[in-house]
Amino acid sequence: MVGRQRNAWPTYGMTMPMEAPQQHHERPGIGRLELVEFPHPALLRRTRPLVRIDEGVCDAVEQMFEIMYESGGIGLAANQVALPYRLFVVNLEARPNAGEELVFINPSLSRPRGTAVQEEGCLSLPGLRMDVRRPEKVVLDAWSLDGEPVHLDLDGMLARVVQHEFDHLDGKLFTDRLPEAAAIEARRSLDTFREVFLGRQSRGEVPGDDVLVARLDRLEGERCAGA
């Protein structure tokens, strides 16, 4: 959106784990996106690196910020809107025209240091909040939406949000990081989410898993490695 500044930080000398995604404009659009909830297949599937950035991806990023703000979130991974791409967005202020809008493409994490426990929630698990232990600091390597390399040594809230969203890209939820007693408690909520989702599928409000997976496969083929 005009007037927003994204990934406006200095980049540092670094070697990225893969080549930068290429800029393309001829690829098909992605369409209207919406937030999905557990156990949508996209949330349980490891995303794949983007090898090209086109108008569809740029539009998807715009929509992701809109959805994140509407939902009151500070981070959103691509598979939370049923996209199979290694991409997530962050704005710690949780509202447009405030804070800094960050876009991370094909991210990798390294050098975890320290530990911290803090309550986390997830837009795809509405209402569920639990204490999660994570590294306090971490190094992030990624690409910006403009194809520029990003190298950041993070701590505090931004480090936590980045790790949370990175887990999503690997098909993991924050509930996967809970100790046994807390995991048992969370499982009751997950069972409820599953019942609601299956009920919506049975009523035809949500397509069946075969249709949802076929769409993910198609989107992968359009923009990911091997496409």
How would you characterize this protein structure?
- By secondary structure, the protein is an alpha+beta fold.
- It has one domain (34-215): Peptide Deformylase (Alpha-Beta Complex).
- The chain contains 4 helices and 9 strands; from the N terminus they run E-E-H-E-E-E-E-E-E-E-H-H-H.
- It is globular, with a radius of gyration of 17 Å.
Provide key terms for this protein.
9 strands, globular, 30% helix, disordered N terminus, Peptide Deformylase, 227 residues
In short:
This protein is α+β, with helices and mostly antiparallel strands. It has helices spanning 55-71, 156-169, 180-202, 209-223, and strands at residues 22-23, 52-53, 75-77, 87-90, 102-113, 116-121, 129-134, 137-143, 149-155.
How are the strands ordered across the major sheet?
A: 3-4-5-8-9
* Outline: globular
> Helix-strand pattern, N to C?
EEHEEEEEEEHHH
Strand composition percent: 15-25%
* Number of strand elements: 9
Number of domains: 1
CATH third-tier fold name: Peptide Deformylase
CATH class: Alpha Beta
Calculate Rg over CA atoms. Answer: 17 Å
Helix fraction bin:
25-40%
Number of helical elements: 4
pLDDT average, as an integer? 89
* First-last Cα distance: 29 Å
CATH-derived architecture:
Alpha-Beta Complex
Overall structural class, as computed from helix and strand content, comes to: alpha+beta
* CATH superfamily placement: Peptide deformylase
Poorly predicted sequence stretches spanning 5 or more consecutive residues: 1-18
Could you give a short account of the major beta sheet? 5 strands, antiparallel
